[in-house]
Amino acid sequence: MYNVGMDFALILRFLIENFARKKIGFALMGGFALQAVGVARTTQDIDVLVLSEASPKIKEIMLKHRYKLLYESEEVLNFVSDDFQLGRVDFMLAHRKYTLAMLKRAKEEPVFGGKFKVRVLCAEDQIGLKVQASSNNPKRLHKDMSDIRMIIENNYPKLDLALIREYFSLFSREKELDEIVKEIKNA
User: Fold this and answer.
1) What is the torsion angle, in degrees rounded to the nearest 10, for the CA atoms of residue 117, residue 119, residue 123 and residue 128?
2) The domain containing residue 138 runs over which residues?
3) How would you write the pLDDT of the chain (187 residues) with one tens digit per residue?
4) Is residue 56 located within the same domain as residue 129?
5) How many domains does the chain have?
6) Of 40, 4, 19, nearest to 112 (Cα)?
7) CATH of the domain at 102
8) Rounded to two decimals, what is the model's pTM?
């Protein structure tokens, strides 16, 4: 399910402990976080949503612990380690209306087989990020739409479909959502 070389438990423990010391709130997102909404998928990294103002503290922590900064913008920080076990950690920096709301809605969930309890983006927000990612990079379309479908199938009765529709409508993709919902209802 995970990148075999990366020690996800080690990295997650590292993030939990170091971010708690520096009072940095975060929420898991991306492939690793999908398990909290009932979707198992392989992943190559850990993706985290944090407040943008935590960026200097995050850089300090990651650089101090043998990570290299691959890329930095007002939207993201990407780190990788030469130590295969430490792998890659990507941070999305919340500073806009949608990502700030996502961070507020995140709930503590068991991950990694219940070994850890961490805040994870809700199903609707994971869908929203996948709609955005597949709109920005068409090469991701099939993989992200497959994830979206599985999230909706596994969580359908309790989803806020209005919020999901809002995410799809931001990219003029409401018809895709309608097709998924129709197929699930008719199954």
Assistant:
1) -150
2) 122-187
3) 334 578 999 999 999 999 999 999 999 999 888 988 888 878 889 999 999 999 999 999 999 999 999 999 999 999 999 988 899 999 999 999 999 999 999 999 998 888 999 999 999 999 999 999 999 999 999 999 999 999 999 999 999 999 999 999 999 999 999 999 999 988 7
4) no
5) 2
6) 40
7) 3.30.460.40
8) 0.93
